[in-house]
UniProtKB/TrEMBL annotation, chain A:
Name this polypeptide is given: MrpA C-terminal/MbhD domain-containing protein
Alphabetic keyword roster: Cell membrane, Membrane, Transmembrane, Transmembrane helix
Pfam families the UniProt entry points to: MbhD
Predominant cellular place of this UniProt entry's protein: membrane
Species per Swiss-Prot/TrEMBL record: Prolixibacter bellariivorans
TrEMBL record, chain B:
GO cellular component: plasma membrane
InterPro entries, alphabetized: CPA3_Na-H_Antiporter_D (IPR050586), ND/Mrp_TM (IPR001750)
Compartments, record wording: Cell membrane; Membrane
Keyword Cell inner membrane: no
Record protein name field: NADH:quinone oxidoreductase/Mrp antiporter transmembrane domain-containing protein
NADH:quinone oxidoreductase/Mrp antiporter transmembrane domain: residues covered: 127-409, 559-841
Protein species of origin: Prolixibacter bellariivorans
Membrane disposition: Multi-pass membrane protein
Regions that span the bilayer: 6-22, 29-54, 81-99, 106-124, 130-150, 162-183, 195-216, 237-258, 264-282, 294-315, 321-340, 360-378, 398-418, 439-456, 462-480, 510-532, 539-556, 590-609, 629-650, 662-684, 696-717, 724-742, 748-773, 793-809, 829-848, 869-889, 924-947, 1024-1042
Record-stated family: Belongs to the CPA3 antiporters (TC 2.A.63) subunit D family.
Keywords per UniProt: Cell membrane, Membrane, Transmembrane, Transmembrane helix
Pfam families the UniProt entry points to: Proton_antipo_M (PF00361)
Automatic annotation (TrEMBL), chain C:
Spans through the membrane: 64-82, 102-123, 129-148, 160-186, 192-212
Compartments, as annotated in UniProt: Cell membrane
Phylogenetic classification of the source organism: Bacteria, Pseudomonadati, Bacteroidota, Bacteroidia, Marinilabiliales
Family: Belongs to the CPA3 antiporters (TC 2.A.63) subunit B family.
Topology in the lipid bilayer: Multi-pass membrane protein
PANTHER family from the UniProt entry: NA(+)/H(+) ANTIPORTER SUBUNIT B, NA(+)_H(+) ANTIPORTER SUBUNIT B
NCBIfam families: PRK08386.1
Protein name: Cation:proton antiporter
Keywords per UniProt: Cell membrane, Membrane, Transmembrane, Transmembrane helix
Chief location: membrane
Gene Ontology CC: one annotated term: plasma membrane
Segments forming domain Na+/H+ antiporter MnhB subunit-related protein: 102-220
From TrEMBL, chain D:
Protein name: Cation:proton antiporter
Membrane topology value: Multi-pass membrane protein
Keyword hit for Metal-binding: no
Transmembrane segments: 6-26, 35-55, 83-103
GO cellular component terms listed in the entry, alphabetical order: plasma membrane
Keywords for this protein: Cell membrane, Membrane, Transmembrane, Transmembrane helix
PANTHER family, alphabetized: ANTIPORTER SUBUNIT MNHC2-RELATED
Localization per record: Cell membrane
Record family assignment: Belongs to the CPA3 antiporters (TC 2.A.63) subunit C family.
UniProt source species: Prolixibacter bellariivorans
Length: 83, 1043, 234, 123
């Protein structure tokens, strides 16, 4: 039962994060929100008895992907600033 | 046999190893890549050979040492061997082609390219659905990389759009795959095929998502904007690989997964394919960028292939043959065309005239275009034939119509493009750079079209019995094209003569008559070729190809053979016609009408074959289904070649603008192919009734009569001498059609004898007038005049010609007409007869004008020094005159044998001959007597004229004394200009170009439609994604009939 | 707005289209199909305690090879983009926050530990959660951290590609050994199976996972490095 | 079908995130936002896959305890979807990284991230 509750909460939080990622005007927030969605998903994977996936999602899905997003975003921002 | 896993291991291993290569070792890296791709090609080709020659069994490749479904397995079967061979060969030659570019880019470039080829190999061979997904991703990532080999705004934007689209598509594919796993507990394709379908709706939906993703990979209309952008922007070498490689592999995946779909889905698939084929070719009409144009064509062709897959239920075991022959044609041609585009480097198809600077590339360009459209001897010809035949046997006429319309649209832009390359001015264009490593792949693929074409025809049960020797001889002339004209001309004449000698004993009945027209006529007109100097490149292969086709018509034992010969003839004549200086638009309309006519014939033959045990020509005499339709389709098909009213608009330009000796070939000889077709058709099928009471032949009779009147009328109002003759051919062919439609002994006697004499007098006139034009450098009659003094021999030719043409006694034209009126009386078609009679009067008008404006009157100043026509152009004229006079003096030498040929079919109502004295029901006629009488009268009048001519007063040509104003154009006051102004006032309304206008309207409408449709490709990548999603939803709704 | 409503319509249509998938979902009680086989025989057949690893590396090892190739290609394509910037432009600024003394010190401390963690993850891939991909990603993140803290620091491009290439080639080679020595391409029985549940078990799986770890790590590092070096690309 | 079970909720959440992702892809004009949409699309798909492999009250497919080693099929969740997700995640990373680099290069060309501005190729 407690698992079910956690799942629901996680689900709601993920959906909110996803909506923020799509709708927030600030790109940094959006990127972080997308990363958070991924991170919460990895928690969900633990609940779903998938530790391997959880580890992968945490390190690759939320970690590296977000990192690359930021790299690129900063490049673009700096590029803009130079103009 | 090398195990197929080594294809993968080699490509992958080399790709990984390339990372070790530094920048200075780019050549080494390139060499290694080429070797690896060559090895991969070798493995797959070796398997292919094993399957074909030694009938090997298909082999599974198990990975990880477990049997499927527990581990991933690959399959190397006949199909896989073929497709991997295609992919690897494309990769190999593609790399050779891109050598310089790759060398500049370095190891990452090689890696990307190998990655793509590897991915495509695996998606062809794999039997595991998720594995398919992984390697699809590999190939799409690699493709995204290939696109940016040249980096600029366009390629990057196109690459990004491509990534967006494939991202969405593969996401949906993954969704489908995982649910398929969920419902079945397996990922193995063979297991899925065994399961086929489950009661759960979810499974059906999952399968739908998998299949729709593969469909989307094939770029269906309208969800394909991203694909077009890629084709347009990517380097041509890359576009070639995408078009030849990715499309081929994706097609195979669809083929592999096809059994997963329900029969309803297959129909949906066929619909998608057809919409893509027609839509994409329609939008291609307005396109001027060569690579984007090729993109439209590529997408269209893949659409056609998808249609074939969707229709596989109807096509049965022929599906493979049809799909593969069309696919391989597309593979070779599209790669070749993209490669050529990469050498030419012109972004407007109009600038492709520059291609003429390189003869080899120009030839290859033509080869690829004809391969793409499906002309013989290329593989797609046989594929299309089988496709239409099989669809007809399943009563699927809708699909036939759609496929043929799509093909025709494709023909429009491809032939326009070819025309530009052949004819537009290229004087100020800088030459392009040609490197051997770029030409080699193109040449290999060009040669392969012939090899594969031969192979395909050799495994086709009916194609293999066609006689390919005439065509081979014609093609052989390409090889000796460097020789001077007189050598080639002699060889051509000898070849024709030998073949006629060889064929003569086998000819009988109408074959003998038309064989004589085609071959003896061919030899006679070829003689004029000696008048040309230099090499006259590109003339003999096509002239002989046309004659090869004509011979093939007579030799044809099967409908396929007939259609094959018909198409060969069309190709040859197209190239002859386009040789004329201003022929480009006319050659295009000739080609399009020919294609349209050919497709009608194809449909007709297809319906005629339904329920038959073979394709013999004789099956036409017992057509089982829709005989009226078969008759109409074939008749209209033939009528496009005889240029009946409504279908005639291509003729005047094509014949008038052609070269001196080409005009007689196409006008006097080629048109008879249509007549031969009609003769064959009428004999085999007899009359047919529309709706049980209207006779088709009766309608054709009217058409013939009206064509005769209109053709002659239009001839009378021409200023251009050759155009006049061309229109006159329209009129005469109208007579012939009318004569055949009479369906009586006399009607046919006149029609066939006019066919023979028309060959003679029209060759004569075209050669004579052509000789005049050769000297005076103009075709406008009012610019000539008085040439009788300078060119008496030509004058005499024209005189004889028009006497025969107008059907005046004493020459043989008269005998034809005389029989004609007898036939009309017997049939009691008085009204039509009156029209024919009327048209005869008009013939007087234009024949008079021809001789009057050109040869009589005052000589123009600029023509004072003009010489007689070249000797070699006069030679055939006088040979013809000799025969004409012989036939005229001894008419039964012509009419009696023809009558004998006709008798078995129309035994009653023939002529009774006593010597040269012919008796019909309505009177009698003795050719010899008439001949002498008329000559006597003629001589008398001539003597009288010579005596009295001294009193004649000379009037200046540009006499404007009676005009109140200074003429705006000098020709307006020339008496020979608008010669029949008064007639034009009275009946000019009849000759207004309404039909031309109508056809132009059709063309404009199609172009406008295409232009409107292509606006959906607004360039916004996001819109393309919306198209994709909307496409999925709509196809879902169609497939499941709701949510 | 019209455009958005249309998109909404399409999306609702798509949602309706996928609805039968959700609707047909039924909770399972037991494994079926291939999964059942893996569960029951995976231990004997492959010998890896972590069944996911058994599936990833052996049963579906060919997919994994493809997966490695994808990263390899992605890295190559990114390299294609950046080939113009052959001459390395020095950029002292950090990527998204100022490189501080703390960060530098922390990274000195952390990087080796993170790398060790990564190595641990892929070496134990056949026993515990994680494996080559996760381990590789962890290693790459260590390098990313290094890049964050010390932007001037140069990695040897050469070294990265050599590791990448050698591990890739070895992977393919081990796969081929499977044909020669065992049942087929990528069969893990080319090495002794060892005792179930110990480090040296499951045949070639640990080796392959190490190679994958190295390869993925170097590929991801390559991607990050390439991104960093693409400061000014025309 | 039990609506309130963690696998079913996860499945639904997965689909919702997937739809949000597609919505983002189709409506956001900013290229980076579109890529974020893609990564949400991926995440949603991954959640769906894992949820499909879940079997209620069963443990992870790691046979580190002796009692798991017999009659295993009754005791663990499905390892196959997990393996597939691993692959999918890595592929997703590759694709996302590549898209981002594309976005960066596009920005280099026109100094804007608005997808509508990159319509030089059309018709």
């Amino acid at each position: 039962m407690i698992l079910l509750l956690i799942t629901i909460v996680l689900g709601v939080v993920m959906l909110i994060a996803a909506l923020i990622a799509v709708y927030n005007k600030d790109m940094k927030t959006a990127i972080i929100a997308a990363g958070l969605t991924s991170l919460f998903a990895s928690v969900l994977y633990v609940l779903l008895a998938a530790p391997d996936v959880a580890l992968t999602e945490a390190s690759i899905g939320s970690g590296l992907t977000t990192l690359i997003f930021f790299y690129v975003y900063n490049k673009i921002r700096r590029n803009n600033a130079q103009e | 046999m090398v195990a197929p896993i080594y294809i993968i291991a080699t490509l992958l291993g080399v790709a990984f190893a390339l990372g070790l290569f530094g920048k200075k070792m780019n050549s080494m890296a390139g060499l290694l890549s080429v070797v690896a791709l060559g090895f991969a090609s070798f493995i797959s080709l070796e398997w292919l050979a094993g399957f074909w020659l030694y009938d090997r069994a298909a082999e599974y490749i198990y990975t990880a040492g477990f049997k499927p479904p527990f581990s991933i397995n690959l399959l190397m079967g006949k199909d896989e061997a073929l497709f991997t061979s295609l992919i690897n060969i494309a990769g190999f030659f593609g790399t050779v082609y891109l050598w310089d570019k790759l060398k500049k880019i370095g190891s990452n470039g090689y890696v990307t390219l190998m990655g793509m080829i590897l991915g495509l190999n695996v998606i062809i061979m794999t039997r595991d659905l998720f594995n398919l997904f992984v390697f699809l991703e590999i190939s799409s990532i690699a493709t995204a990389g290939l696109i940016i080999f040249s980096q600029n705004l366009k390629t990057i934007a196109a690459g990004f759009k491509y990534m967006l689209a494939t991202g969405i598509i593969s996401g949906i594919l993954l969704l489908g795959i995982i649910f398929m796993y969920y419902f079945t507990g397996t990922l193995n394709i063979d297991d899925f095929l065994a399961v086929h379908s489950l009661a759960v709706k979810g499974f059906g939906v999952a399968v739908f998502f998998v299949l729709i993703s593969i469909v989307l990979e094939l770029k269906p209309f309208p969800a394909n904007g991203w694909g077009l952008d890629v084709y347009e922007s990517a380097d041509s070498g890359i576009a070639a690989m995408i078009s030849a490689g990715t499309a081929t592999a994706s097609f195979f995946v669809m083929y592999k997964l096809l059994p997963l779909g329900t029969p309803q889905f297959h129909m949906v698939l066929a619909g998608i394919g057809l919409a893509t084929f027609i839509g994409s070719n329609l939008m291609g009409l307005k396109q001027t960028n060569p690579n984007r144009l090729l993109g439209y064509s590529s997408i269209g062709q893949v659409g056609l292939l998808v249609t074939i897959l969707g229709l596989s239920e109807f096509l049965g075991e022929r599906t493979t043959f049809i799909a593969y022959s069309i696919l391989i044609s597309h593979f070779l041609a599209k790669a070749g065309l993209f490669w050529i585009s990469g050498i030419v480097k012109r972004s407007e198809i109009k600038e492709w005239a520059v291609l003429r600077n390189n003869r080899l590339l120009l030839i290859l360009f033509g080869v690829f275009i004809f391969t793409l459209i499906g002309f013989p001897p290329f593989p797609s010809f046989f594929g299309k034939w089988d496709l239409v035949l099989n669809m007809a046997s399943n009563n699927q006429y809708f699909w036939i119509v759609g496929i043929l319309i799509g093909s025709l649209l494709e023909g429009v832009y491809l032939f326009r493009w070819l025309g530009y390359a052949l004819k537009l001015d290229n004087a100020e264009m800088p030459a392009f750079e040609v490197k051997w490593n770029k030409v080699l792949p193109i040449a290999v693929f060009g040669a392969a079209t012939f090899v594969v074409g031969y192979f395909v025809s050799s495994i086709h049960p009916y194609a293999k019995i066609i006689n390919y020797i005439p065509l081979a001889v014609a093609l052989a002339f390409v090889l000796i094209d460097f020789l001077p004209v007189y050598v080639k001309n002699t060889l051509a004449i000898l070849a024709m003569a030998y073949y006629y000698y060889y064929l003569y004993p086998t000819l009988s009945s109408f074959g003998a008559v038309f064989g004589a027209i085609f071959m003896v006529g061919g030899i006679v007109t070829l003689i004029a070729g000696y008048a040309f100097k230099g090499q006259r490149r590109g003339f003999y292969p096509f002239a002989l190809m046309m004659f090869a086709g004509l011979i093939g018509l007579i030799e044809a034992k099967t409908t396929l053979g007939f259609f094959y010969a018909w198409e060969v003839m069309t190709v040859g004549s197209y190239f002859l016609i386009i040789r004329g200086k201003k022929s480009m638009p006319h050659a295009l309309s000739y080609m399009l009408f020919s294609m349209g006519g050919a497709y009608l014939m194809l449909a007709g033959f297809a319906i005629a074959s339904v329920g038959q045990f073979n394709l013999d020509m004789s099956t036409l005499s017992h057509v089982l289904v829709h005989p009226t339709w078969v008759f109409i389709l074939l008749a209209v098909g033939f009528l496009t070649k005889t240029a009946s009213l409504g279908l005639h608009i291509w003729l005047p330009g094509a014949h008038a603008e052609a070269e001196t000796d080409v005009s007689p070939m196409v006008s006097a000889i080629l048109l008879k192919a249509g007549v031969f077709g009609l003769v064959t058709l009428f004999l085999a099928m007899g009359d047919q009734l529309i709706g049980g009471d209207v006779s088709v032949i009766y309608l054709l009779g009217w058409l013939g009569a009206i064509t005769a009147v209109m053709g002659n009328l239009m001839a009378a109002f021409q200023e251009d001498a050759k155009r006049l003759l061309a229109y006159s051919s329209v009129g005469v062919l109208g007579y012939i059609l009318f004569g055949l439609s009479l369906m009586s002994h006399l009607g046919w006697l006149s029609a066939v004898s006019i066919s023979v004499t028309h060959f003679m007098f029209k060759s004569l006139l075209f050669l004579a007038i052509g000789g005049v034009v050769w000297r005076v450098k103009t075709k406008e009659m009012y610019r000539m005049g008085g040439l009788i003094k300078r060119m008496p021999f030509s004058f005499f030719s024209v005189l004889i010609g028009i006497i025969v043409l107008a059907g005046l006694p004493p020459l043989s034209g008269f005998s034809g007409k005389w029989i004609f009126y007898n036939a009309v009386m017997a049939k009691e078609w008085y009204l039509q007869g009156a029209l024919i009679f009327f048209s005869g009067m008009i013939a007087f008008l234009y024949t008079f004008r021809l001789i009057h404006s050109v040869f009589l009157g005052q000589l123009k100043d600029e023509h004072r020094e003009v010489k007689e026509a070249p000797f070699w152009i006069l030679v055939p004229q006088y040979m013809i005159i000799g025969v004409l006079l012989y036939f005229s003096a001894i008419p039964n030498s012509l009419l009696k044998p023809i009558g004998k040929i006709i008798s078995p079919y129309f035994p009653t109502g023939g002529l009774e001959w006593t010597g040269q004295h012919a008796v019909s029901t309505y009177g009698y006629w003795n050719g010899l007597v008439i001949f002498y009488i008329v000559i006597a009268i003629f001589v008398t009048v001539l003597v009288w004229l010579i005596i009295n001519n001294r009193k004649a007063q000379k009037v200046k040509q540009f006499n404007i004394v009676f005009a109140a104003e200074r003429p705006f154009k000098p020709e307006t006051s020339h008496y020979a200009y608008n010669f029949y102004a008064h007639y034009r006032k009275a009946i000019g309304i009849l000759v207004e170009p309404k039909i031309t206008g109508w056809w132009e309207g059709v063309a404009e409408w199609a172009h406008a439609m295409g232009d409107k449709f292509r606006k959906i490709y607004n360039g916004n990548g996001q819109s393309y994604l919306i198209h994709i999603m909307a496409f999925i939803v709509i196809i879902y709704l169609i497939s499941f009939g709701g949510f | 707005m019209l455009r958005n409503s249309l998109i909404l319509l399409v999306l609702l249509g798509f949602a309706a289209a996928v609805f039968p998938l959700v609707h047909s979902y039924e909770a399972k009680d037991t494994l079926t199909g291939v999964a059942e086989h893996y569960a029951n025989y995976g231990k004997e057949e492959v010998g890896a305690a972590n069944l996911v690893s058994a599936v990833v590396v052996t049963y579906r090892g060919f997919d994994t090879l493809g997966e490695v190739t994808i990263l390899f290609l992605a890295s190559a394509v990114i390299g294609l983009f950046l080939k113009v910037s052959e001459t390395h432009t020095k950029d002292s600024r950090s990527v998204f926050f100022k490189s501080t003394e703390i960060l530098v010190t922390a990274s000195r401390l952390l990087v080796p530990m993170i790398m060790l963690l990564g190595a641990y993850i892929f070496i134990n891939g056949h026993l515990t959660p994680g494996g080559g991909f996760q381990g590789g990603a962890v290693i790459a993140s260590a390098f990313a951290l290094l890049l964050l803290s010390r932007p001037q620091k140069q990695f040897s491009h050469k070294l990265i590609s050599v590791i990448e290439s050698i591990s890739g080639i070895t992977f393919v080679f081990i796969g081929l050994l499977g044909i020669l020595l065992a049942g087929g391409f990528l069969d893990n029985h080319i090495f002794a199976m060892g005792k179930f549940g110990t480090l040296l078990s499951a045949g070639a799986i640990p080796i392959i996972y190490i190679l994958i770890g190295l390869k993925v790590g170097s590929e991801l590092t390559g991607i990050v490095r390439n991104l960093k070096e693409s400061q000014k690309v025309g | 079908m039990q609506l309130f079970s963690i696998e079913y909720i996860s499945l639904v959440v997965g689909f919702l995130i997937l739809l949000i992702g597609i919505w983002g892809i189709l409506t956001r004009k900013n290229i980076l936002k579109m890529v974020i949409g893609f990564s949400l699309f991926d995440t949603g798909t991954h959640i769906i896959i894992v949820a499909l492999g879940y079997v209620r009250n069963k443990t992870a497919p790691i046979l580190d305890q002796a009692n798991l080693q017999t009659n295993t099929a009754q005791k663990i969740v499905d390892p196959v979807p997990q393996a597939l997700v691993l692959t999918a995640i890595v592929i997703g990373l590759g694709v996302t990284a590549l898209m981002l680099v594309y976005a960066m290069k596009l920005h280099n060309e026109k100094k804007t991230l608005n997808i509508e501005k990159y319509n030089d190729l059309k018709w």
